[in-house]
Amino acid sequence: MSSVACGRIPDTRQKNATPWRRRIALVLPGKSTLDVFVKRVLPVLIVWHSPCIPYHVMARKTVADLLVEVLADASVRRIYGVSGDSLNGITDSIRATKDLEWIHVRNEETAAFAAGAEAHLTETLAVCAGSCGPGNLHLINGLYDCHRSRVPVLAIAAQIPSNEIGSGYFQETHPEHLFAQCSHYCELVSQPEQMPRVLEIAMQTALSKRGVAVIALPGDIALRDAVEKAPRLRFPQPKPTICPSDDEINILAELLNSSIKITILAGAGCAGAHAELIGLADKLQAPIVHAMRGKEFVEYDNPFDVGMTGLLGFSSGYHAMMNCELLLMIGTDFPYQQFYPKNATVVQIDVRGEQLGRRCKVDFGFVGDTKTTLRAVLPKLQQNRYGVHLLESLDDYQKARKGLDELATPNSGKKTIHPQYVARVIDQLAAEDAIFTCDVGTPTIWAARYLTMNGKRRLLGSFTHGSMANALPQAIGAQVSYPGRQVISMSGDGGFAMLMGDLLTLRQHDLPVKLIVFRNDSLAFVELEMKAAGTLDFGTDLRNPEFRKIADGAGLLGLRAESPDDVEALIAQALKHDGPALVEVPVSRQELSMPPTVTFDQAKGFSLFMMRAVFSGRGDEIIDLARVNLFR
Ligand SMILES: Cc1cc2nc3c(=O)[nH]c(=O)nc-3n(C[C@H](O)[C@H](O)[C@H](O)COP(=O)(O)OP(=O)(O)OC[C@H]3O[C@@H](n4cnc5c(N)ncnc54)[C@H](O)[C@@H]3O)c2cc1C
Ligand SMILES: Cc1ncc(C[n+]2csc(CCOP(=O)(O)OP(=O)(O)O)c2C)c(N)n1
Ligand SMILES: [Mg+2]
Questions:
Q1: Which ligand is nearest to the CA of 441?
Q2: Which ligand approaches the C-alpha of residue 525 most closely?
Q3: Does the bond joining 483 to the residue before it have cis omega, within 30 degrees of 0?
């Protein structure tokens, strides 16, 4: 088979080396006249004479070309990944097109998190890729996050040469098994005839089931001639509305009309239904508690907001749920059973039937999307005239809010920088439409408590999967998707260091992400858990470098706060900086993030910790803990 005959007609006006010319170069190396003729003259002749060349000679399209075309046709704009031999066919096709961008990151885990962030923010399919074996294994943790957060992501897991599968070949793994748990669909493409059908099924599955789909594609198959020549599916993404039946809506209305102390627990499933949610709370005179992933959609412009519940929550959120007669869960999968009321009637609305009753005993479950369901039930509701429960909850909220605000003080003139203050400054200085990401660890607490949402701002974390090191990669995906918006990563020093290599990606792609590193020289969240469990903290110390200098070396603006009085000016400087910037803020390590109620077990844990600490000669730490939290 001649490479010339099969080569795609090169676009000589485009980038230097087309796949076609490179293939010829591989066959005829050297700098001979013939080489010059083949490389420079022949392509031009072929383009000139292309109308005369039979279709099968001029229009060779590889499986990889087709893959790229299908993705571009479905409005995918980029693929995040790290290249590798088994991916060469795909990256080569991307190189030759203007429709798809290759976002080269330093670790495939970053690629998956970044694609997840893009999918979350844009609500469209995002794509990541890894080369065979270790390359795509690195994707897995990020893909778990995407899958569990229900964002549509396609992963391309390149595979070893198809004729070697099953031989224990170099880098051999079995992606169909490896990705099975973190995807709705995972298939090997072993024949060109499967394309683009398998790819399209994968894309459709990721979008309609919301989650991850994976195609495993051996490098040699990617380079084979495509059989089908074009995408098969050309329709806009369906957006069905789902409403409970009329009978069910009547039952729902009756339940709500016959209760007076109602609390709403609203989650991420309330996105796009803000007006309906507020209208409902008004009719029912119901306080609204939000679950963490619902914060960005529920908290803003909300006179019924009483904060979050859970270990990181507000006491007001906790009490509003515990004191109600009827708890109405809407679009939430809030996971912690101990924070649900034991004696209230529980009614749940969720678009997925399988979610009903997953977290607590549910008395009535309704399958419907929030907007459609609330629109259907609202006209059937009577105005609740009993406002006491709402007023009490709002009053509680004000007190809880005040308590938390008092912890976010600058501590001016002193040395200790409180992380709450740093979060408050970020909130105050950030743009109207900033996108925040927060690392798992204490940054999640500070984001939950101190960032103000307004309907335009966005907040991403690894809230469901709970993986460290999410904030920087998600910030990369956010900034790539929205180059004009301010993107701020609230990073822990542990989380940041875990995927720190991708600091380099900010310069590589000129992404003006702002990283605020909460440097407490520890895995502080875990220390807190250890204290609460009554064990001595162990394995949580971090001997950190100066992150500012690392940032500097990576070509970012690197800043470091030395005292509370530096914080505001430095964060402002970073936010104004025209490029990526990192602000390292040494924050106190022993900030307690007290849960809304301290359970007996937790209280016992703390005292046990203190006793053990004294016995082990670490009483100084308790004094430190007390000084930071009790006497400030
Ligand atoms: C360190 C750490 C600590 C945490 N502590 C807390 C805490 O104290 N408090 C807290 O709240 N969270 C906390 N979280 C987050 C927590 O783990 C959950 O991820 C979060 O509570 C879930 O929020 P959600 O219910 O809004 O979102 P999800 O879990 O995503 O649930 C959304 C639900 O809405 C449904 N849905 C989607 N679309 C629609 C629609 N259109 N109509 C109807 N239904 C729809 C989905 O099927 C799903 O059931 C913590 C996370 C971390 C990492
Ligand atoms: C990949 C991964 N490893 C370990 C954990 C357990 N874990 C949860 S929070 C945390 C500490 C995070 O430390 P850091 O980023 O420094 O934040 P801090 O809590 O200190 O502010 C750890 C180790 C995890 N969630 N994910
Ligand atoms: Mg830390």
A1: 2
A2: 2
A3: no
Q: What is the pLDDT of residue 456?
A: 98
**Proportion of the chain above pLDDT 70, given as a percent:** 84
Catalytic positions: 108, 170-171, 440, 525
Tell me the CA–centroid distance for residue 495 and ligand 2, in Å: 6
C-alpha to C-alpha distance for 627 and 617, rounded to whole angstroms? 18
How confident is residue 412, by pLDDT bands cut at 50, 70 and 90?
confident
Of 70-74, 405-409, 442-446, 599-603, the poorest mean pLDDT is in 599-603
In angstroms, the CA 160 to CA 85 distance is 9
Domains of the chain in sequence order? 1-53 (no CATH), 63-222 (3.40.50.970), 246-398 (3.40.50.1220), 408-630 (3.40.50.970)
Q: Dump strand ranges (E) for 181-222.
A: 185-188, 212-218
CB 289 within 8 A of CB 310: no
Closest among 550, 522, 520 to 538, alpha carbons compared: 522
pTM for the full predicted model: 0.90
Which amino acid is located at 288 in the chain? Answer: I
Q: What is the pLDDT of residues 181-192, one digit of tens each?
A: 999 999 999 999
421 in Cβ contact with 477 (< 8 Å):
no
Percent of the chain residues past pLDDT 90, beyond the cut = 78
pLDDT bucket at 545, cuts 50 / 70 / 90: very high
CA–CA gap between residue 410 and residue 406 (Å, rounded)? 10
Ligand 2 pocket, mutate which of 468, 522, 547 (most atoms under 8 A from CB): 468
- pLDDT tier for residue 605 given thresholds of 50, 70 and 90: low
**Which residues, judged by CB distance below 6 Å to any ligand atom, belong to the binding site of ligand 1?**
267-269, 291-294, 308, 310-313, 331-335, 350-352, 355, 369-370, 440, 444, 462-464, 466
- Using N-to-C axis directions, what is the helix angle for 108-122 and 140-148, rounded to 10°? 20
All residues at 6 or more sequence positions from 296 whose CB lies less than 8 Å from its CB, including other chains: 453, 457, 458, 459
